[in-house]
Design goal:
Number of helices: 2
InterPro entries: Col_cuticle_N
Shape: rod-shaped
Subunit structure: Collagen polypeptide chains are complexed within the cuticle by disulfide bonds and other types of covalent cross-links.
Protein name: Nematode cuticle collagen N-terminal domain-containing protein
Keywords: Disulfide bond, Repeat, Signal
GO molecular function: structural constituent of cuticle
Length: about 90
């Protein structure tokens, strides 16, 4: 009967040690996940700041008078409506 009690003690101790190891491992993983989440949120905040700054620059430069298609290419786009007067000159949209 003594051998069975020793074996039972060893198995129970090993099981308790495995359970404690699993609990501490789970806590460690949760801590790592929490720190990763904080890092991601910080990076997203920085990205949002960069994106807002870039958007502000694009909107500011978007209000400046740009070049018209005719100025760049030297021709009128084919989709532009053209008005042909009866027996008169052709007038394009300008």
């Amino acid at each position: 009967m003594g051998h069975i009690q020793v074996l039972l003690f060893v198995v129970t101790s090993a099981s308790a040690l495995a359970a404690l190891t699993a609990i501490f491992s789970a806590i460690h993983v949760m801590t790592d996940i929490s720190s990763f989440q904080d890092e991601v949120l910080t990076d997203l905040s920085n990205f949002k700041q960069y994106a807002d700054d870039a958007w502000g620059v694009m909107v500011r430069t978007g209000n400046s008078p740009g070049f018209r298609f005719e100025q760049i290419t030297g021709r009128i786009p084919t989709q532009a409506p053209i008005l042909k007067l009866i027996d008169g000159p052709t007038i394009s949209r300008d």
